[in-house]
User: Fold these one by one.
Assistant:
Number 1:
Amino acid sequence: MVSLTIEEWHRQFSRQAAWTRGIRSRLYRQAGLWRAEAVLDVGCGTGVITDEIARRTRGRVVGLDLDPAMIRYAAGRVEGAEWVVGDAHYLPFPVETFDLALCNFLLLWTEHPVLVVKEMARVVRREGVVLATTEPDYGGRIDFPEDIALTPLMEESLRREGAHPHIGRRLKALFVEAGLEVQTGVIPSIWDDQQLRAEFEAEWSFIFKTLNNVADEAELRKYEERAWRALQAGERLIFMPIFWALGRKPGAHPL
């Protein structure tokens, strides 16, 4: 992944979580989070979503991440959770350990997303739930005016980092391949002028740090200047489709 400090990643994870808080609340209810006895947050990062989960259930909550530094950071700021360093492709838990296994903006970054979903399905109990709350699809992003469109650069940067910029549209197929009974949906994320203004500095700071593997600073400054002019003129628009999937593990077959 791109080189950011833990604090910078935490700020970005917090921003991302804020964009989709409403849909997560609905998905948590649908997944039965409040009555879950054991919940696994796969790819928990700095614990932003783990903290949210721990506040909504009395059950056991476990956060797992491949990066020990992320786990140390999360453990230092979140109460009411257990922390494990581990690979999402090979979850270090026995079969049918959890009632709910979820991830947030994770499959985008995994080497083999289908293996991750299969592992999440393996560790949930029968009739338990696997939930991917938010996975973006950069192929569906729309920018206006069009001369500000960073999508080609974003997709190329993600591919160079080993990510899957079109993961959103693949979610349903991944869950089906993992043997789950799946429901899917899309969050039509539109950034309005108020959000664009409030997040302009933070968004462009992140862009400069994450797209420097595909563009130099001078080129990115030109994009930033055009984006600011369009925002001031009231013309700026960003549309980004973000997909979710909720899969239920089939129960035991009747005799």
Number 2:
Amino acid sequence: MLLKYLVIAATSFISTFLTTKYLIKKFRQRGIVVKDMYKKGHPDVPWMGGIAILFGVISGIIVSQFLIPSIEKMLIFYFVAMSYAIFTLVDDMIDIGRKIKIVVPIFLSMPIALLNIDTTLSLYFFEIELGALYTYVIAPIYLMVVANLINMHSGFNGLSCGLSLLLLAGIAAKVILKYGAGELFYLLPVFAATLAFFYFNHYPSRIFLGNVGSYLLGSSIGGLLILYNIEFFGVIILIPHIINFLMAVYSEWFKKIKKKGAVFAKVRKDGTIEPPSYLTMKWLPAYFARLKEWQCVIINYLITFVFIVIGLLFF
């Protein structure tokens, strides 16, 4: 079984690695680039690199069907994640509008009900049986919320991808503790693909995820938490993302009242970040100390790592 798992992971990793290298070259040639606002001169960086992760995941699934006797659940699970990726890829290209982006993800999450997921919500002290309410309402909303939390906690080189990689590793550790390593095959394609992409995405990024990548990762993380019935553990490890969301909500309210705010922080001559406020997790460290982008990213990694450890030890 270990050899089969290694083959699946290697397929996703190599496919993503090679595809990312190809996309970097092609996207530069076609002008599919955005400005890196936190570098001197604002260099152009290819984006929508999440397409490479999507390709790697698909490659891993194709190989899985020859190695794992029954992969129906895997196909359903990744159908949801790929639906999110395709939807946001279209949004990246044509900007489908805010109202549609609010409504459609709920429907994209509905196939999670086909997994015959455990409808018992496990909390720290007790369990609640929710039945169809969980299957058709709570689970899809939970998945959608997690996908949006992952997408929002981004903006620096390697931030969203690195945090997602940490979260996936934390989920893998929790699964091993709860079920054993034999249940990891659902997670392998997306974890291996994300690891390969991170090689190109960490500071200084050679390619960005784009919404297609962040929503693919976010929906995968949300789906895995539901699939493995570790939703409460998911809440714990996502506390930094939840705080980031609450900051964003307050920031939007603050800007409406005070008529000020900014999308990007400034960069000082010494390369340190000068944020307009402390109201995102990525800006928070630099608001109180003169820090460079990569230092802020490392601090955010450490914060999430701490909550993963807390989740593993106590939840």
Number 3:
Amino acid sequence: MHKIRKPKLGQNFLVDDTARHRIADSLGDLSQRTVIEIGPGHGAITDILANRCRRLIAIELDTSLAKELQFRFRERPNVQVLETDVLKTNLAAFVEHGETLDVIGNLPYYITSDILLHLFAAAPVLGRAALMMQREVADRVSAAPGVRDYGLLSATTQMYAQVDNLFTLSPEAFDPPPDVYSTVLRLLFAPRFAELQVDPVGFDKFLKQAFAQKRKTLRNNLRSAGMEPAELDARWPSEIPPEARSEQLSLEDMTHLYRNLSGGS
């Protein structure tokens, strides 16, 4: 058993044996897959993955932890431990022979959204992901339209991937125990931009405008973003109530509105 040292960089190390196997199991058969592990820490899940996947690339920012893992897996040719920042890593560079990559990781609470956005930017080369994050963030990521937690992060994520809420872990599953519960989500990357006939850059910008102030109606948020009331009146779809709020609308409704306002069909 590895001695757990005082954490930095927002680290809480997974020590629950059942949980680490459940997380690894959630990606299914990895025998022919390349897996990117984000923040492996002391290697609780790395140990399992090293025996299951064709190729494992563990990305660890902490110098001491990276060196620990590099030494432990020095005789495992299928395991590569990189001491680097995942947010500065070009994930597409790890693709071989046209494959897609799987991702697994315990995401630091303070940069969860940044890492998710980084993964979305690489969505064309990603297959599946099993990601652990603060329960409140996971609830927002997986929320459906019409519920309180649904917002910009929900809509953005669900434009890039299908989301399954798998299970939640108590603080006692970690050392040191965090002050929050953690939830594991599985993402199946399947961007919907082509299906819903919108361009990713333009629609991402539109979503930010639409969800800018949660207490405002969608129409008022778009007016605040500089859209003229007369244009909104002329192009507003009849099936969307004039006083609708962004969190009430499905992605199909939002993309329909976006196409109308952009001059599309």
Number 4:
Amino acid sequence: MKRFFFLCITFFSFIFLNAQTIDELAAVRKGNNSYLQAEKLRTEAMQLIEKGGEINTKLANEKFKEAAKLYQDAEIAYRKGMAITKNFPKANYNLANTLYRQEKYEDAANSYKYIAEQKENDKSLRAKAFHNYGNSLLKQEKYKESIDAYKNALKLYPNDKETKYNLEYARKKMMQQQQDQQQNQDNKNDKDKQQEQQQDNKNDKDKQQKQEQKEKQQQKQDKRQLDALQQNERQTQKKVAEEEMKKAGKSKQEKDW
């Protein structure tokens, strides 16, 4: 009975795993179909854009919209197909491509990186993954990281002209970024110095105003003290005059008396 029970479990587990694999493969195939259709429409749209003209531009935009919908469908199918089983290298690569086409550059970069770092994957696939990993980083203006990605791609395929071109382009962009950052820093320093100078001037002006206010207050205080002294002097003089008048009056009375 135990052996029979074990065989039943093994049998149904095998059927379940097989069904799961079939469902996954079906989803991956669906993703491939949507992705290839989207790429075809995108290529046709690009060709129409190159021809120019209002009608061609309108048709191209319609094809771009159809392609965008198919890229979304492809992403959903790929994720469903690899929800459990991750080891579908080409499907993973196409998933990364669909993310890139949808301008989901951060997600695309993570997918490309995953494929590129799996050393058991095909050398050619890893090289392309490193190349596109660099492109995804380039779109995010992560120039140093993109340079490293391109270098890794060239380690696998040293003579790839497109990767060499992108590498040089990334280097130029990084140099420009560094120059811009330095210029921005210099501008910030100049602005900070200007603000500091303005603050110093304001402080000096405030000090001057305080000093002038203090001097005015001192002048007012001195004036009050002077007025008080003058008032006291007048009162004293008045008292003296009154006393003298009293004495003079008394003296006159005594003489008349």
